[in-house]
Amino acid sequence: AGKNFVKDNTYQFNSVGIFFMYSKDTIATGNVVKSSLGATGMGIGLKDVSNFTIKNNTILYCAQGIYIDRSPFEPDTNNFINSNKILYNTEALHFHSLSENNVIKDNTIIGNIEDIVNDSRGSKTNQNEIVGNYWDNYKGFDRDNDNVGDTSHKVYQYADQLWIYNPDVKFFYGSPVISLLNFLAKLAPFTKPLFLLEDEKPKVRIEG
Q: What is the structure's pLDDT at 66?
């Protein structure tokens, strides 16, 4: 199955907005997915899909913005996740199982509690092409004013934060005490953090 074109729809107050499985050659563009509720509420999900283009969508107020599970599935293919607005979700991008060769480019990632979640040791999040995204928590500078950060944006997962992903604790996500614990974990982690991914050319401001 494949060759679907999902365009300019609005999905709200569902458990899952759009979920693609076992297919290829599909474009989803111009859709708004908001308020996919519940601890596992999902904006757009990709499971075992190849040669997908997810572009110019707005995903907000979901538990998981974009969920990527063993995608792309077919060898020597890519998925293109470009120019989306991923806003105010619990998790912006959630990787599950082996997921590499996604091209994640020119997205705007703002206000999410966790930008990247990797729940599988073998998902190889750093084997995706991630470039030119705007991350609201990027800490670098742009001295030549070309709207590309002078240093890359690296995302780590701290082992002492993993308890936060316990469903029983998710009620407290975003509360001041969780924010404080996150800050302390990054300030003085108990263990060496796990490198997840790097955006070598992060944007420092939103254009347009």
A: 98
Q: Can you read off the two tokens belonging to residue 8? A: 């300019």
Residue 207's pLDDT band (boundaries 50, 70, 90)? confident
pLDDT: which is higher, 178 or 99: 99
What percent helix, strand, coil does the chain show, rounded to 5?
10, 40, 45
Q: 34 near 62, Cβ under 8 Å? A: yes
DSSP state of 2: B
Report how far apart the first and last C-alpha atoms of the chain are (Å, whole number): 36
- How far apart, in whole angstroms, are the C-alpha atoms of residue 159 and residue 162? 6
The answer, as to whether pTM is greater than 0.85, is yes
d(CA 146, CA 85): 21
CA 204 – CA 139 distance, rounded (Å): 9
